[in-house]
Amino acid sequence: MTAFVPRTTFPALTSLPRSYYLGHHAAGLAKMKTMLNQIDFVIECRDARIPLTSRNPMFEDLLSGWASGGRERIVVYTKQDLAVEEGRTPSKTNKEILSLLRDRSSARQSLTGAHAMVVGLPNVGKSTLLNALRAGGVKKGKAAHTGAQPGVTRKIGTGVKIIDSENDASASSDVYLLDTPGVFIPYVPDAEAMLKLALSGSVKDTVIPPFTLADYLLFHVNHQNPEVYSNYHQPTNSITDLLSAMAHKIGRLQKGGEVDMDGTAMWMIQRWRNGHLDRFGLDLVNDETVAKYERGGEDERGSSLSQARKAGKEAARQRSRAKKGGAATEG
Ligand SMILES: Nc1nc2c(ncn2[C@@H]2O[C@H](COP(=O)(O)OP(=O)(O)OP(=O)(O)O)[C@@H](O)[C@H]2O)c(=O)[nH]1
């Protein structure tokens, strides 16, 4: 038997959508901008499975020049448990975040307490982090809704207390944390980056065909360990063959016995998202890729900014059309 050889490249998908920038993303970002002067700490969440791709150039723009005079930007990599252990981007633990906030805010001595804001892509885990910091800091239950699809938090709420100086001997200032809606990258120049973002859950699952996403997942799984799907099929580069085998095994068949390809593809994707189909990241992180990413950052920021402006104008046009009697649609 010849040894299995995984595909070395994934086919270029020129017709793939490159954006998922919605009205509430633009509105959320605009509101964050107006609030920044009252904010002392920004906790920027990135996804540990895509530490490079989940960096949003819009936050670079939002925060440029902001972090001075004691203000601090803290980058946190979420979903660590779903990323492969070796090569994982180191991140602060919740305990370390709380301790940093406690120390820095106590040093500031503000009478009204310190104010932090959590930002990041849709579905990256902002509300989950807020709940965890609140549980760790003031031992209180959930304050923010979380969910498996992007867009659960649509508006900036009011701050929740995560450090209470009255009940915390090592804190001399209260700290409040503000949840914000996830903001997508207005324009993703690289089609493969769009696949990574969609696979990680930042894009609604209706935007990119699940079959394409499952194929991209298979491409990665085959580089990690094709044995993880040995219950269904021998190592293969054919997503059609693998999904057919899975569908027969789990009973995802339509009337007449035809395979429900999209349903099975979604099932496979969810298994990976829940950590049941191996745990690994999608970004190759080394000195070279980091340097390349930094070099590309400026271009990406430029195209995202112009795309965001276009989206802003279009949203304004839709609002004015709606006012004149037409119906506005989002998306
Ligand atoms: N395995 C794992 N799942 C997580 C982690 N953090 C968040 N999640 C899950 O990811 C999904 C999204 O989490 P949320 O906290 O709602 O994400 P969000 O960034 O607030 O999402 P938006 O409201 O879209 O902006 C939920 O299903 C969470 O349970 C984590 O560290 N590990």
Automatic annotation (TrEMBL):
Q: What is its main location?
A: mitochondrion
Q: List keywords of the entry alphabetically.
A: GTP-binding, Mitochondrion, Nucleotide-binding
Q: Which GO terms describe its cellular component?
A: mitochondrial inner membrane
Annotated GO molecular function terms are: GTP binding; GTPase activity
Domain annotation G: ranges = 116-199
Extract the Pfam families matched here: MMR_HSR1
This chain's protein is named: Mitochondrial GTPase 1
InterPro entries (alphabetical):
GTP-bd, GTP-bd_ortho_bundle_sf, GTPase_MTG1, P-loop_NTPase
Give GO BP annotations, semicolon-separated. Answer: mitochondrial translation
The family note in this entry says: Belongs to the TRAFAC class YlqF/YawG GTPase family. MTG1 subfamily.
Q: Does the keyword GTP-binding apply?
A: yes
Question: Where does it reside?
Answer: Mitochondrion inner membrane
* Domain of life (superkingdom): Eukaryota
* Primary gene name: mtg1
**Ranges for region Disordered:** 294-331
Task: State the organism named in the record.
Answer: Saxophila tyrrhenica
Function summary: Mitochondrial GTPase involved in assembly of the large ribosomal subunit. Plays a role in expression of the mitochondrial translational machinery.
Question: Where does the chain bind GTP?
Answer: N123, V124, G125, K126, S127, T128, G182
Topology within the bilayer: Peripheral membrane protein
Report the leader peptide range.
Answer: none
